[in-house]
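Weekly puzzle thread! Below is a chain. First person to post its structure in token form gets bragging rights.
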Amino acid sequence: MSRLATVNVVKTFTFDAAHFLPNYDGKCGKLHGHTYTLITCFVGQVGGDRCMVADFGAIKDLVQEVVLDNLDHSCLNDVNWEIYPDPGEDFTSEVWELSQPTAENMVVAIAERLKAALTLPGHAEAFEGVHLRQVTLFETPTSYASWIAEDQVELALRLAEGATTFFIDDPEEDN
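Winning reply:
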């Protein structure tokens, strides 16, 4: 049996949408549109009998159903984000209403929906043992917001501070 390796699988999508920021005193307060670029990053292990983290086609189907079918060629201020059953998390927050469809609010909403959808029938089997690691949403070619899974935040902060060496506690070591 070969050694297991943790691997990121990344897929990129684009969609077009309009939005405006109510009560914002600036040009984004007026209706305008963008061609958004959405980058998804899933993490899992390969090795042994498992040859891939997740099939790229399964990722495409998931993102198409959960995100693109709702956002592409829409006015983001009018998007109804409450179409999935509640998988145990509070989906009634202001973010889900997208009353202020900023890149920051959108990337959080997209990430939360993708995380929840990984456990739904039709997707759970294809994503068994797979976790959403990062979602990045480009509003323009030079401006973006990123969501990073909570268990990855410390690592991201250390990298941002210039750390190059990491020691990860091995839970097997304590046994």
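Puzzle host: Confirmed. Bonus trivia for everyone else. The radius of gyration is 18 Å.
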